[in-house]
Amino acid sequence: MSVRRVFALLTGLTAVLLGVVLAMGTGRDARPQAAAPVPAPAEEVVPAAGAEWVGTWSAAPTGGEPGTRDGLANRSVRNVVRASVGGTGARVELSNRYGTAPVTFTHVTLARAAGGGPAAVPGSLRRVTFGDMTSVTVPAGGSVLSDAVTLEVAPGGDLLVTVYAPGPSGPVTYHRMAQQTGYLATGDHADEPTGAPFTEAGEFWRYLTAVQVLSPAAPGAVVVLGDSLTDGITSTPDANRRWTDLLAARLREETGAPAPAVLNQGISGNRLLRDGAPDRQFNGTSGLRRLGTDVLPQAGAHTLVVQLGINDIILEPRQTDPAVILAGLRRLAEEARAEGLRVVGATLAPFGGHDGYAAELDRVRLLVNAGIRAGDIFDAVVDFDRALRDPVDPHRLAPAFDSGDGLHPNDAGYRAMAEAVDLAALRGDITERAL
193 and 230: one domain? Predict the structure, then answer.
């Protein structure tokens, strides 16, 4: 078992133990405070021969949600996520990374989504436990991985993960630009299959940072570390048209080869070399720092795709030395390889017409791209510059791919990005890389 896998398992176990201690120390009951009926009894998940746990969905936490200083007491949060691969069992990761106080969840459920909203497929709701307890306290800065539940998860199917916290806590750890509607209800409605109480909507993922499935078929996971282009902030909401979603669909549709999972760890405004500015902490910590927090803990990760660098060029303070950016990319690739990952690098897409455009900055981008294409940094390269640029004016996105701001693609542009990826490059030598 690799060091990073041991680290991930210990992190989850430690969070559970800390949660129990905190619950005891503060007088909080470790059992659910409401005697809600259990939708489906917990069943022991028995792995099929050769089955492995692999991440099927993920989102990087981007900070504490504004307006939630005391958490979301007596509110049920229902997240909607899309599974990139399927399985026969599932478990979830909840995060309090940006909280300032412990948060206690007394009711957590997982279900297949009926589609188009907060309703669940009848009979698919499962109560989720943590160390066989129905309640868990996650300390400030911590996370927790649940026990497994038996649930048939379809490749490309949507899931509902609902959490209920009865009492106040600190700010809600969330993903700021989900392009996916999430739902809120007053009171404990985690086991409500119709979705009727979930009358408040917002485009966030709250508390939930990963879903893993027990898969007999998926050969590990591809993790994409990126900025707003990977976050898909100009894709159609609720349509799952980020380039990573479309890439996952390509992999599932390919015949003759099992599809690896695709895990999106994009954060809008993220940089390779610098943390987000004090007034823009939702842009996340640097890509170099995120390797340890957002990539290595992902279950089954065998390939890393790096789509970072443009914000280092266009955001203040700007990095105008291409050698510094290339050195950062090289360091990230070397550190990832040292953990057993195959590393694929992406060229920087055009941004002519964007508010941040300047000819001297575009020169930096072109030099960075030349260094990426030279082939001595990454194991393989995906050329988003070539896929997206206007053949008439290569400093700009092709008009058919431009969302309107000169920087971010539209749905057609995201599809062009997904189609630019050599699927064989993602698999690499999977059999020789420990999953």
Answer: no
Helix (H) or strand (E) holding 374: none
Q: Is residue 334 part of a domain?
A: yes
Selection from 161, 211, 168, 210 nearest residue 190 by Cα: 161
d(CA 58, CA 207): 11
Whether residues 258 and 201 share a domain: the answer is no
Q: Look-up: residue for tokens 């957590």?
A: 108
| Pair 207, 236 in one domain | no
For 199, the 3-state DSSP assignment is: coil
One domain for residues 20 and 69: yes
Provide the CB-side half-sphere exposure for 10 (13 A, CA).
7
User: Which residues, 6 or more positions from 35, have their beta carbon under 8 angstroms from its beta carbon?
Assistant: none
Give the start-end residues of each E strand in 267-336. 301-307
Residue 13's pLDDT is 43
End-to-end CA distance of the chain: 9
- CA 152 to CA 96: how far, in whole Å? 28
In the chain, how many domains are there? 2
Domain containing residue 257: 219-432
Domain boundary among 179, 211, 243: 211
**pLDDT (average), residues 136-164:** 98
Scan for tokens 């990230």, then name that residue: 332
pLDDT in tens, 358-382: 999 999 999 999 999 999 999 999 9
Give a yes or no: residue 49 inside a domain: no
Same structural domain, 198 and 99: yes
In a domain, 339, yes or no: yes
Which pLDDT value is given to residue 216? Answer: 85
- Find all residues with CB under 8 Å of 85, minimum gap 6, and list them: 54, 56, 155, 213, 215, 217, 218, 248, 252, 259, 260, 261
CA distances, 122 to each of 12, 111, 119, 160, 218 (Å) = 30, 9, 9, 12, 27
Distances in whole angstroms, Cα of residue 376 to Cα of each of 322, 347, 422, 426: 15, 14, 18, 17
pTM of the model: 0.90
- Note whether 320 and 364 are within 8 A (CB): yes
Distance CA 269, CA 315 (A): 9
Residue 90 has pLDDT above 90, yes or no: yes
Q: pLDDT tens, 265-315?
A: 999 999 999 999 999 999 999 999 999 999 999 999 999 999 999 999 999
CATH number of the domain encompassing residue 280: 3.40.50.1110
Residue 378 lies in a domain: yes
